[in-house]
Design brief:
Elements (H helix, E strand, L loop, with lengths): L1 H29 L6 H4 L4 H23 L8
Length: 75
């Protein structure tokens, strides 16, 4: 079960982080809106860096959950 949760959290983190990065780059360097995150929230460019950090935290949490040693079950 932990492996499934780890992969799921990690996958969600990749999507959130990528969308935050795409939104930041598109607003900062091109002055346009890319991705779908801007359809949910309209934030300044710097706020999207926070979204990238949240995505990275989810990825790291998922990896840590996946690599955690198995628990010992008592009979």
């Amino acid at each position: 079960m932990r492996t499934t949760i780890g992969y799921t959290v990690e996958s969600i983190g990749y999507v959130i982080g990528a969308q935050g990065l795409v939104s930041f780059v598109s607003q900062t360097f091109f002055g346009t809106e890319w991705g779908w995150l801007h359809k949910l929230v309209d934030r300044p460019s710097a706020a999207y860096l926070g979204v990238v950090v949240v995505g990275l935290a989810l990825v790291l949490g998922g990896v840590k959950t996946r690599k955690a040693p198995p628990r010992q079950e008592f009979a």
